[in-house]
TrEMBL record:
Keywords: Oxidoreductase
Pfam families assigned to the protein according to its UniProt record, in alphabetical order: Pyr_redox_3
The species this protein was found in: Methylogaea oryzae
Protein name per its UniProtKB record: FAD-dependent oxidoreductase
One GO MF term attached to the UniProt entry: flavin adenine dinucleotide binding
Lineage top rank: taxon: Bacteria
Keyword set includes Oxidoreductase: yes
Keyword Chaperone belongs to the record: no
Length: 420
């Protein structure tokens, strides 16, 4: 950062121009706080470039509530497709009209002179009193080290790079991971007539419709989306849990992996390793299916209690029952013998915050904060799951989170001016 001329200074610099960064800009503009937004790609990039062709929201459109910019369409109970999500983000960007520089990557943030934060970018060096990190936590696609031992004749692709069934070579496909991406890609392949194998992980599942109403509407009324992380039984550990799986495809429906097994999808336990063409699995298929169903049944029970307590007229539903049980749990399969020609890795991402040289991370590289405010003066995070509530990290909770951070920055800025 040694330059012959001084760095340009801003009271606030926002890193990331997605829905969280744009929302932060909007809240700062309302308070007349000068700032700039750096976006390394272009607005809407991750929705446009990092999702498969049939991708759609899992949460209904009515939950799209960016600051003063609710869902604009005529299908609030539907689920926006990928291109519609991009259009929604771009329309919000036009409303915000943020002071944004697209195509500018931030490569370093550190403490500098006079306690200011120094920011190195591909566009030059800057300083700021406050830096808001709005890059999300989906930086590096996770692929296990043992994937390198797979023969090259078997194609591998991460969910981030999966687009459609025709992208994969002819033959059967193994999808690894049963989070939201994994089960939706499994269904995408299954509906296309591909023979699918699925390594089932520990993700929970949720009903889509229950007792005459969309489940997220019930959960909203129950206050689930207002549950704060400090009141969650798991505390901060809730931030690392996998989301419930279901889908918004074709109007939305739940995903019961047992039913897919009846339709020919081959289920295994969690992926354990690869030895050449031999794929190895843990003996936890039955356990993972049962635990996912327990969460599913618990959500239904919570709704039942709410309906009874409030004397709501709602149609009754039959109790949940398992439609399929694994007769055995295969611990390995030979990919060549099974005809598996491709693997889709859907086991998530990990964040990459190596460019932030401030002591705010735990041993796993995750930032530590309270409502997005870190212990490093002037550094904030926004747009992450469970930043404060279950709604954080979704379109539903961004307005509240960014409003809180903007108010915090405004208060701290006023205190700094008074002290000066």
């Amino acid at each position: 950062m040694n330059q012959p001329h001084p760095s340009e200074h801003y009271p606030v610099i926002i890193v990331g121009g997605g829905q969280a960064g744009l929302s932060m800009s909007y809240q700062l503009q309302k308070r007349d706080i000068r700032h700039i937004v750096f976006e390394k790609n272009r607005i809407g990039h991750s929705w446009r470039a990092d999702r498969w062709d049939s991708f759609c929201l899992v949460t209904p459109n009515w939950q799209c509530r960016l600051p003063d910019f609710p869902y604009q369409g005529d299908d609030p109970k539907g689920f926006m497709l990928k291109d519609e999500i991009v259009e929604y983000i771009e329309a919000f960007a036009r409303k915000v009209d943020a002071p944004i520089k697209q195509g500018v990557a931030v490569t370093r943030v550190r403490r500098g002179k006079q306690d200011r934060l120094e920011i190195r970018t591909s566009d030059g060096d800057y300083t700021a009193d406050h830096v808001v990190v709005a890059t999300g936590g989906y930086d590096i696609p996770i692929v296990p080290d043992y994937a390198h031992s797979l023969p090259q004749r078997i194609a591998q692709v991460h969910s981030m790079h999966y687009r459609n069934p025709g992208q994969l070579p002819p033959g059967e496909v193994l999808v690894v991971g049963s989070g939201q991406s994994g089960v939706q890609i499994m269904e995408d392949l299954h509906l296309a007539g591909r023979k699918v194998h699925l390594a089932v992980g520990s993700a929970p599942r949720s009903p889509r419709l229950y007792r005459g109403r969309e489940t997220t509407e019930w959960l909203y009324d129950l206050g689930f989306y207002d549950l704060t992380v400090d009141r969650h039984p798991l505390g901060d550990e809730a931030r690392h849990k996998t989301n419930h799986y279901l889908t918004g495809r074709n109007g939305g429906h739940e995903i019961d992996l047992r039913r897919f097994a009846l339709e020919g999808v081959k289920l295994y336990g969690s992926m354990a390793g690869i030895q050449g063409a031999r794929l190895e699995f843990k003996p936890d298929l039955r356990k993972n299916l049962d635990e996912a169903d327990e969460v599913y049944a618990r959500i239904r029970a919570d709704i039942d209690k709410y309906i009874a307590a409030n004397r709501i007229g709602a149609p009754e539903e039959a109790p949940f029952r398992k439609v399929w049980e694994p007769e055995s749990e295969p611990l390995s399969v030979d990919a060549d013998e099974a005809g598996i020609t491709a693997i889709v890795w859907a086991i998530g991402f990990r964040p990459d915050y190596r460019w932030i040289e401030l002591p705010v991370f735990d041993g796993r590289g995750h930032p530590q904060f309270r409502r997005g405010v870190t212990d490093a003066p002037g550094l904030y995070f926004v747009g992450l799951p469970w930043l404060n509530t279950w709604g954080s990290g979704r379109f539903l909770g961004i307005a509240e989170d960014t409003e809180y951070l903007a108010a915090t920055i405004a208060e701290r800025s006023a205190s700094q001016r008074a002290a000066a």
